[in-house]
């Protein structure tokens, strides 16, 4: 395929659409094929850093290089609520594609940080423990790479132009994609230089408009109770630096689902400020709103625990989006841990206040996962009876 010469006066939006049209018909692609489509104006690090403050309006986004580390995050596709551009009888699908770009090597000396931390916790002579500390710390110490544009192939033949990322190194793009059966996962693969490291392939889960879905922290209390076509959203207040570890943990123990984490990096001042100023309840409420906008006709089971503000966040969501959207709220009462204020958080009065105005049969506090199974069966049965015998 011959790459068309484009002038710098072409707008970023028009360029993105033009690139997608050029490559849409390709059944196979390699980095060698799409490389000519990468941003052609490479600027100095100083200029790129300044331009990254413009976010999506950055006129000169930079390509991912062999020295970068890229993460493509798993996501969920949903039937679009926007006007269908493909005509009657077809369904438009959309998904939010999120990327994060870092430098492969941190600017600080990781070994010095590891040694200091190991000494403080009494593990200075434990080499295995120090290796574990280094592995866990590394994502927090990588320098973020703002202003990067990512090319990726969805399903092997549809080119997506993602980004450029903002000051936190993250880009988020809502894209229209080809349809697939509900419950299917379709891969998206980054088109990057061979030496680029990271999570270079993500999975898109296709969720039907109706049926059941789950919002939970990383929890397995209900994984055997919901069909394979039901989407899972793992909503956590953890920073996105933990994504690789949580992704591996999910893959090993839990149903596939989208991990939703705080998009704030500790390696930038705005990210650090956001971490300390945006409360957990406010953060989770905002992300639940986004899930509702994606899947407003779903029936949700939401699962949380008593250590943070899950009861308050879920009750607010119930009052905002109504009983047809949130069908069951399950809160695990955390015991046997040395969390500050846990006794107060576990008091019955706390739960009664948090769930004021929410019917008592909708929310439940439990200690053992086995307690939830019958509650879930009852909720599913009640929903089926509502369909068969509407009031």
Based on the coordinates given, report the CATH architecture of the largest domain: 3-Layer(aba) Sandwich
Give the C-alpha Rg.
Answer: 23 Å
Give me the number of helical elements: 12
CATH class of the largest domain: Alpha Beta
CATH topology type of the largest domain: Rossmann fold
Order of helices and strands: HHHEEEEHHEEEEEEEEHEHHEHEHHEH
Give a quick rundown of the structure.
This protein is of the alpha/beta class and 391 residues long. The chain has helices spanning 12-23, 31-34, 45-51, 110-120, 127-141, 243-253, 269-277, 280-294, 310-321, 342-345, 348-354, 370-388; strands at 62-63, 68-72, 75-79, 93-103, 148-154, 158-162, 170-177, 185-190, 197-199, 201-206, 212-216, 232-239, 258-262, 299-305, 326-332, 363-366. Helix 6 links the parallel strand 12 (232-239) and strand 13 (258-262).
Q: What does this 3D model show about the protein?
A:
- InterPro entries: APP1_cat (IPR019236), Mg2+_PAP (IPR052935).
- Pfam families: APP1_cat.
- GO terms for molecular function: phosphatidate phosphatase activity.
- Residues 229-333 form the Phosphatidate phosphatase APP1 catalytic domain.
- This is Phosphatidate phosphatase APP1 catalytic domain-containing protein.
- It is a single chain.
- With 391 residues, the chain is an alpha/beta fold.
- It has three domains: 10-105 and 142-205, no CATH class; 110-141, no CATH class; 207-391, Rossmann fold (3-Layer(aba) Sandwich), CATH 3.40.50.
- 32% of the residues lie in helices and 24% in strands.
- The chain is built from twelve helices and 16 strands.
- It has helices at residues 12-23, 31-34, 45-51, 110-120, 127-141, 243-253, 269-277, 280-294, 310-321, 342-345, 348-354, 370-388, and strands at 62-63, 68-72, 75-79, 93-103, 148-154, 158-162, 170-177, 185-190, 197-199, 201-206, 212-216, 232-239, 258-262, 299-305, 326-332, 363-366.
- The strands form two sheets. Strands 1, 2, 3, 4, 5, 6, 7, 8, 9 and 10 form a ten-stranded mixed β-sheet that branches. A six-stranded parallel β-sheet has the order 13-12-11-14-15-16, sandwiched between helices.
- It is globular and about 65 Å long.
- The model is unreliable at 1-13 and 15-29 (pLDDT under 50).
